Amino acid sequence: MQRHIKVQQYLETVCSQIRCKKIHADIWEEIENHIIDQKEAYKAQGIDEEAATIKALEQMGDPVIVGTELDRTHRPKPEWSIIALTALLLITGTVIRSFTSLQELNGIELFNKQLFFTLVGVGLMVLFYHMDFTVLGKHPKTVFLLLAVVIVFLIGLSKPTLGRYRYASYLLLLFPTLFAGVVYSMRNRGYTGIIGCGILFAVSFIISMVIPSTSSCVLLTLSSLIVLTTAISKGWFGVKKLYALLLVYLPVIGILAAIFASGILSERIALAINPSIDPHGKGYTGAIIRQLLSGAQFIGQGNVPEYFQGVSSPQILPGINSDLLITYIIHRFGWLVFFITAALLILFIVRTFMLCLKQKSVLAQLVSTAITLTFAIQTIFYISVNLGFQLFAPLSLPLISQSSSYLLINMSLVGILLSVFKTGYFIKDKEDSIKTAVNPFIKFEDGKLIIYVSDGQYRHRSRHD
Question: What is the mean pLDDT of residues 16-45?
Fold first, then answer.
């Protein structure tokens, strides 16, 4: 009993030095295993158990020093690169919108409103940053279905604007992230798990069609397919990968074939490639965008077609603050401003993808990938429309274009992403889950205690330090 108390006191002293409570259990277990292994080695040398335990604890070293070193090397740290890029994107969006707002009759009021929502968005980012993202893996189906109920409730309360439930459509951007939690919870359940993921995806798909929001539906489908494909390709369902992929993609191919047969998609593609097919109807906006961009300069104001002389920018491009912001800044300020803005967004997305690949936990990988895909697909849709290729309607240009609701959703997703990057390394999947390559916290080698840091490097400390 005395021996057990000494070991427990040692472990409590080590953990009391470590501020990140998420890793207490793992560090406790790992150090305890090292103590037991070392104790057994001493017992094999003929030393009695109590003396062997005391020598094993001495071999570990001062618990305060060990705990302090572990705290220093495994303290959650903000991902400053993402914070800096987020700040740059928000500042860029604010500056661009300050110019475009002057074109509107209520420009000052519009700008102040967007500035207010930007500050609220920052607050939401901070809130989600400090929240535990692992709740998405602990109660994924509950959270997923709760979001579905909220959206259905909003559909029931609100009236459609131009045939669409706008306020309900904004929340659709949260589905890919929650779907990542669903995939995580269904891993190791074989084909049943894949079918379960498909059923919940179908719920979000049907809701997006009821709203209806084709762009959100496509974003949800693409991101969910990539997340599910990633999980299958890494063997996280424990099934034959080819059969699992066929189970996922055959229904998708069937739906696409039906859409092509209806002629709807082929008509969209034809108009996106050549909007002049219907310049006064469905291809009007695309045709106008291409005419304005054809006269754009590298720097400065572009040329305006003669028949638009004397017409204000909002009349030429309704939605210069929201759906057609990029078209306006290219026409008004030149291609250089667009290239700088696009470069910031690409850098943000590439950096987040790189950090996704470094995550050790299945949950951290899936959640961060889903959020990054949400940003990437929004960006692709928005820029393609603003360059005159209108296959799908733009949602928002993340953190740049004016849309209070989209801004709040995207800032919340940035907060969750930062939470993943802050503590994702410390999250270990349960024993019954897929084994992931998580670095050990400590190791003994040649009589020295090795304490690993979060990037896989390590620092030596001898037992007498």
Answer: 77
Give the model confidence (pLDDT) of 313-343 as tens digits: 666 666 666 788 898 889 888 999 999 999 9
More confident residue, 465 or 396: 396
What are all long-range contacts of 308-311, with beta carbons under 8 Å and residues at least 24 apart?
none
Q: Which two tokens stand for residue 208?
A: 């997006």
Helices vs strands, H then E, count in the chain: 20, 3
Longest alpha-carbon distance in the chain: 99
Neighbours of 260 (CB within 10 A): 12
Does position 288 have pLDDT exceeding 90, yes or no? no
The CA radius of gyration of the chain, in Å to the nearest whole number, is 27
Q: What is the DSSP string of 385-453?
A: HHTT--SS-----TTTS--HHHHHHHHHHHHHHHHHHHHGGG----TTS----PPPSEEEETTEEEEE-
pLDDT of residue 307: 60
350 to each of 86, 222, 326, 375, how far by Cα in Å?
Answer: 13, 18, 21, 11
What is the pLDDT at residue 445? 56
Q: How many residues does the chain have?
A: 465
- Collect all residues with Cβ–Cβ distance below 8 Å to 31 and sequence separation of at least 6: 10, 11, 14, 60, 66, 441, 442
Phi, psi of 453 (to 5 degrees): -100, 175
Domain boundaries, the chain: 2-74+441-462, 79-114+264-361+368-438, 131-262
